[in-house]
Amino acid sequence: MRPIYLDNNATTRAHPLVVAAMLPFFSGQFGNASSAHAFGIEVAPALKQARRKLQALVGAAFDHEIVFTSGATESDNTAILSALAVQEGRDEIVTTAVEHPAVLSLAEELGRRGIKTHVIPVDASGRLNIEAYRNALSRRTSIASVMWANNETGTIFPVKSLAKMARSVGALFHTDAVQAVGRIPIDLKTTDIDMLSLSGHKLHGPKGIGALYVRKEIKFRPLIFGGAQERHRRAGTQNVPGIIGLGKAAELAAAHLIQEQMQIGVLRDRLEQGILALGCCIVLGHIKNRLPNTSNIAFEHLEAEAIVDHLNRNGIAVSLGSACASGSMEPSHVLRAMRVPPAFLRGAVRFSLSRETARDEIDRVLQVLADINAKQRTLWRACQERARAGERSQLAELL
To answer: Is-catalytic flag, 324?
Structure first.
C-alpha cells in the first residue's frame, strides 16, 4: 500500500506546480538577479512577482516589506538581533516557554551576553499566561517574540493583542508564524506586528528558502552584511529558484486557504475522534483554538517511540512531538512547559495533516493504530504484572 504522510508540521511535499515553476530558473533563466545584462534583467520581474504573491498571502501593506532569507531560523535570529541593535537602552526580550529552538536557543545565548530574557509560562492547554506577559513588558523591553501557532500542539496564540501590548511600552513585536502561514488567514495590515518569520517548506514550497516580514517604518539592522540584495537587508546572491518556488507555494495556499482549512479540519477531527475512542489517551493543546491540521495525542502509560516505530513499519509517518526534538529520549520542552501528567508525558504522538491528506488514509491510520494500541497495552499490562510479581517475591523473602 502507498505510504501515508502525517508529519506535515515537520515538512511538506513540494507541490508539483511549485517544482514546475522553479525548473526554468535552474537552466534557461539562470541569471543573477543583481546583474545588469539580459540574463539578470529577465529574472527580476519573476522575483518581484514572487514577492507580491507572498505579500498577498500574509497581508503585508507593501511588497518590499518581504525580505527573502534561507529559512525561518535565520528570520527569527535576524528579527531579535536587529531589535536589540537598533534600540538603545533596551536590553531585555520577552518570549514564551514553548517557542521553537530557533528562538529559545538564541535567547539562551543572549543571556550569556548579558541580555535578560523573560520566559512566559503556559497553562495545561498550552495557552499563554497573559498577565505574566503583560507584567514582563517594560521600557527596557527591546522585542517580544511569540509564535503564532505552536508546532507541537497547534495551539494558536493571540498575537494581535500581544503585539498591541508590546507597542504600548515602545517595544517591537515579532512572531514566528512558520506553522500558521498558509494554514490560517493572516492580514498583517490590521495588526501591530513588526516582524514575522516564515519558511517555504512548511507550505508545500522548497526547503532552504524563507522570508522575514519587516514593517516599513521600523528601524532594521541586517544579520548578514555584503552586497545590496534585498534592499541592503540581507546580503548574498538571491536563491532565485527557491524564491520562485516560495512565491508559487504562497499563490496556491492563498487560492485554497479557506476551503482546505475546513476540509483538513474535518479530517483531523475524524482522526482524533477515532483515536480517542480507543480509550486511555488525551488531546494535548487547546481543543478549539488551534491549527486545523494538528493533533497531538498522548497515550497513557505507552511509549510514543514504540507507536511511531510501529506506524512507520506500516508505511505511516508521524512524529514524536516536534521534529526538532526527534532522537532525544527526553520529553519535549513544550510538553514539560504544559505540565503534561507523568503517565502521558512519554506517550505523545503528533499527527499533522495537509491538503494532500485523504479520508481513506485517515481510516487506514485508525485501523493500524487500533491494532498497535491493543498490542502495546497488552505488553504494558504484562510488564506491570511481572513487576508486581517481583515485588511480591521480594516481600516474601523479607518475611
So the answer is: yes
